[in-house]
Amino acid sequence: AYFRDFALIGYGSGIGIDYGDGVNMFPEGGIENVSIGNYDIGIRLRKSYYMSVNDVSMAGVGIGLQNIDSNAITVSGLNISACGMGLDVKGNGNSYTGGSVQACVTGAILGGFSSALSGFYFEQNTTALIVTGRSQTILSNFYASNTGPIIISGHNNNLFSDEISTPV
Q1: List of E strands, the chain
Q2: CA distance 153 to 168
Q3: Angstrom distance (rounded) from CA 148 to CA 155
Q4: pTM (whole model) above 0.90
Q5: pLDDT of 87-100, one tens digit each?
């Protein structure tokens, strides 16, 4: 399925776009140029692969993007503000590039194995980033001085400390 060029405004509950059933693997698909507001979860991916999410904006969501066991997902141009959690992403071999998470309780939780998080702007989050996964690559992100700490509990992760202005 492909979702393009529309806006979803909810009533503060439910899921904006729920892709996959959590049992079967759903191949290919895309979400492009979409705006989402006022949902518990803006986009939830469950057991999807080879999917792209491009130029998506969200505000007023509990969780912006939730990836549950989805692999080879490419996300770019994802901008989330005023949320509980910007990204709650797991799965393997995913790429999250270019976007922002602002004014959220938690900017991102990066779980799973061997994904990349780069080119994101983090500002006014209570906690900027929590890394629970393994072998993640985290580079070229901007952490504003008011964005909160980075917490790492996973192992073999690559985080470039010269880019960090917040406690780790």
Answers
A1: 2-9, 15-19, 26-37, 41-46, 48-59, 63-68, 71-89, 95-110, 116-123, 127-131, 137-139, 142-143, 150-152, 158-159
A2: 11
A3: 21
A4: yes
A5: 999 999 999 999 99
